[in-house]
Amino acid sequence: GDSGATGGGGGGGDDKITMGFSQVGAESGWRTANTKSIQESAKEAGVELKFSDAQQKQENQIKALRSYIQQKVDVIAFSPVVVSGWDTVLKEAKDAKIPVILTDRAVDSADKTLYKTFLGSDFVEEGKKAGQWLVEQYKDSKDTVNIVELQGNTGAAPAIDRKKGFGEVIAADPKFKIIASQPGDFTRAKGKEVMEAFLKSNPKIDVLFAHNDDMGLGAIEAIEGAGKTPGKDIKIITIDAVHDGMQALADGKINYIVECSPLLGTQLMDLAKKVVKGEQVPERVVTEETTFTPEQAKQALPDRKY
Ligand code: GYE
């Protein structure tokens, strides 16, 4: 490599840069689409990608980051499984002069110089949109609305922020009660398992708020298994809008989906090239997203890319 003024690494020659990317895992349809987007965009952008899957374990991510530092990649990007506990390894990257880009999920490090930028969605806003739909749905009713919540993996930015945004909006009316809230780790299997437990201990559940489509899809199996009709007996709101979620929405089993885009690859490669050149980048890049009703899901499904 001839990195010279481009700093950092010993990755390829000429303009070719090497990126080390540590992915959370393969826990959901969202994650699969995100991985594909990053791999395809790297190819298109001529970025040499070293990719590793941490299977939702922070220790695996830290190991991957250390190995990228050792290999002297030009830039590191990663989607942190939880928000806390990154300062030491981020400091190591900084000392090695390797720029870091947070992708999709944030860290809670007080020292903002440990990374160059954070590209991803506004998860608080997503939670708020979910809450706003609910408030609108029940605006003419005075009865208590019993809500159960399936959270993402404990300590993850989207789990913390979606819970916060949703909670803030529904707090405006005391008729909304979250009667149970547990992590379902963003997976279908855990979503099903936790929903089964919710159904056993709570005879009257009106609404399920699941932090992603996959947990909602698992919960649908649990609800059907308990002899109830998802979307009718229990209203379901999820976040992501991946294909299987959109199909369930079109089929009336989910009532509302807040979109969270996994297609971050192109923007990530653009940012990577800039930070490697030492150019200024915004410290926060927020993805643009929408919401879907069943009718809108039917319209959108044929053209959805994931
Ligand atoms: O919503 C979920 C995935 O971090 C935004 O992680 C991402 C979330 C996404 O497992 O499906």
In words, what does this structure look like?
This protein has 306 residues and is α/β, with parallel strands linked by helices. Helices cover 40% and strands 19% of the residues. The chain has a 6-stranded parallel sheet with strand order 2-1-3-4-5-11, sandwiched between helices. A 6-stranded mixed sheet has the order 7-6-8-9-10-12, with helices on both faces. α8 (243-250) links the parallel β9 and β10 (256-259). α1 packs across α9, α4 (123-137) packs parallel to α5 (157-170) and α6 (188-201) packs across α7. The model is unreliable at 1-13 (pLDDT under 50). Beta-D-fucofuranose binds at residues 27-28, 30-31, 104-105, 158, 186, 212, 214, 239-240, 260.
Give me the secondary-structure topology.
Layout: E1 18-23, H1 29-45, E2 48-53, H2 58-70, E3 75-78, H3 87-95, E4 100-103, E5 117-120, H4 123-137, E6 145-151, H5 157-170, E7 176-183, H6 188-201, E8 207-210, H7 213-225, E9 235-240, H8 243-250, E10 256-259, H9 265-277, E11 284-286, E12 291-292, H10 294-300
Parallel strand pairs: 1-2, 1-3, 3-4, 4-5, 5-11, 6-7, 6-8, 8-9, 9-10
Antiparallel strand pairs: 10-12
The protein binds beta-D-fucofuranose (GYE).
